[in-house]
Amino acid sequence: MSTQPKVSIRGLFKIFGPDDRAMVPHVHGGMDKATLLDRHGHVLGLRDINVDMQPGEITVIMGLSGSGKSTLIRHLNRLIEPSAGEILVDGTDVMALGDADLRRLRQKQMSMVFQKFALLPHKTVLENAALPLSVQGADTATQDREARKWLARVGLDGFEDRYPAQLSGGMQQRVGIARALTANTDIMLMDEAFSALDPLIRTDMQNLLLELQKELQKTIIFITHDLDEALKLADHLVILKDGAVVQQGEPQGILLAPCDPYIEDFVSDINRARVLRVRSVMGPVTDDTFDGEVEAASNLEDLIALSDGDTNHCYRVLDDGAVVGQLNMKDLVKALVPRISGGS
To answer: Which sign does the torsion angle of CA 324, 308, 211, 113 carry?
Structure first.
């Protein structure tokens, strides 16, 4: 895998208002969102964002409403123009692209899955799924073949001639995913893609995405306000607050070592046993005998069940058949207790 990030964001600022670029030095100097609005009548959207998104990984950007996450994702394909900063895709500066190259980026390199599905109601499921290839000018046979292939892959074989209004919400979102896959882009942007779905359907869609990703290895930028969803999907997690990155990194590491009281509050109610993986809390092999073996990717809940809650057990940890460490159940119990910072 390439060591160059698929997408790099460098020093990105977005300020909403008629003189946004002139406001950047104020924000650089430490002016907060409320003061900028009060003194200058401008709204701070993003403050000095620096994120690398690696090829073949799911980068999840999360935060509460108003944190800037949807604003950020819309910068990647320049649906929103930044006030300052760089956006690089495969090393190319997106801000330097002319109209023709920008259209090519949106058609050939990036596809998007929306929260509200954004299907065309007068077109069939097949026509909706084929739309990216139609826009690209592909012949009808290619459009039909690729759309049918991806509809079948997301579980909609046999629904090609239906219309969006004849489908459930979950099925409509499957069409949206099939449409993005039909575009055959390296990068998929997913803005709150599952937020409008019922919990059980949402879980199904998360599982479908992970199944597809294991096979396709797309670079996915996924926006969510739901921490459980973020921890389930993310290879790299970026947490925003008031337009700035509070913490980013491997989600297991963030859960185990939150760097800020805001993050501690975020993770305090998470079911750590269900989210944390054995690999995150295992140690080096020091024992000669073990009570069993466990996969590094298993969650701690699985291990608690395996051990029947006996804290005296110790397990050898395997990854693809190779021994990578050991996990003492006493260490597991410590990992289940959230870290609390000092102070009142």
So the answer is: negative
